[in-house]
Design a protein that fits this description.
Pathway: Carbohydrate acid metabolism; 2-dehydro-3-deoxy-D-gluconate degradation; D-glyceraldehyde 3-phosphate and pyruvate from 2-dehydro-3-deoxy-D-gluconate: step 2/2. It comes from Ramlibacter pinisoli. The protein is an alpha/beta fold. The chain has one domain: Aldolase class I (TIM Barrel). A four-stranded parallel β-sheet has the order 3-2-1-9. The chain has a three-stranded parallel β-sheet with strand order 6-7-8. Strands 4-5 form a two-stranded parallel ribbon. Helix 2 runs parallel beside helix 10 and helix 4 runs parallel beside helix 5. The structure holds 2-keto 3 deoxy 6 phospho gluconate. The site of 2-keto 3 deoxy 6 phospho gluconate (ELE) has 15 residues, from strand 9. The site of 2-keto 3 deoxy 6 phospho gluconate has 15 residues, from strand 9.
Length: 215
């Protein structure tokens, strides 16, 4: 039984911290300590990608056992994914691309969505459906900082979370842009650290990520 939480908007998800960690969980038992490690470092909005068989169980475990965290689902590629994410207790969703069917399903389910876009036409489609807080994916591969600067003219009212190729080394450049609210990335949860249960390292990486804004 999933307890419904107070409603959240996509912009709240983006504003909470400078980085949304993109998490891949291979073993459901890792989910709770991993979430606690990120929370200890100041990161609460957690994107658990639906890329592994245990992803939904991981979201469920975090939603149940780590009340300070806000579990979200990444890699939403279909209406079925959106519904499964909600049923597991996800409180926001992130998609690597966008279709109106996904947008509608998330809205109907009350799931704030960060739709993935990489072109002007995709931005227009998402905006037509009422989505103006978007994930730019894959950010570095699709044009990076220069692309976001170019988009700022025609799409000045759209805000982005660039993800894909973003790291501690280039995050500040993105965060300095007027149309970037936060960035997303997998660097806070390196596969070797998760595998080894090196939660202190993950807390340290989270803390460094929090310091990216303003510092
Ligand atoms: O599974 C998804 O839908 C995703 O969210 C894709 C991720 O955003 C990127 O894989 C993160 O890219 P890196 O930070 O470069 O590792």
């Amino acid at each position: 039984m999933v307890t419904r939480q107070p409603s959240l908007a996509a912009v709240d998800v983006m504003r909470d911290a400078p980085v949304i960690p993109v998490i891949v969980v291979d073993d459901a038992a890792q989910a709770v300590p991993l979430a606690r490690a990120l929370v200890a470092g100041g990161i609460r909005m957690l994107e658990v990608t639906l890329r592994t068989p245990v992803a939904l169980a991981a979201i469920e475990a975090i939603a149940r056992d780590v009340p300070e965290a806000v579990a979200g689902a990444g890699t939403i590629r279909s209406v079925a994914d959106a519904r499964a994410a909600v049923a597991a207790g996800a409180r926001f969703g992130v998609s690597p691309g966008y279709t109106s069917a996904i947008g509608r399903a998330c809205r109907d389910a009350g799931l704030p969505l960060l739709p993935g876009v990489a072109t002007g036409s995709e931005i227009l489609l998402a905006a037509e459906d009422g989505y103006t807080e978007l994930k730019f994916f894959p950010a570095v591969q699709a044009g990076g900082v220069a692309m976001l600067k170019a988009w700022h003219g025609p799409f000045h009212d759209v805000r982005f979370c660039p993800t894909g190729g973003v790291s501690a080394a280039n995050a500040r450049e993105f965060l300095a842009l007027p149309n970037v609210v936060c960035v997303g990335g997998s660097w806070l949860t390196p596969a070797d650290a998760v595998k080894a249960g090196d939660w202190d390292r993950i807390t340290r990486l989270a803390r460094e990520a929090v310091a990216l804004r303003g510092g």
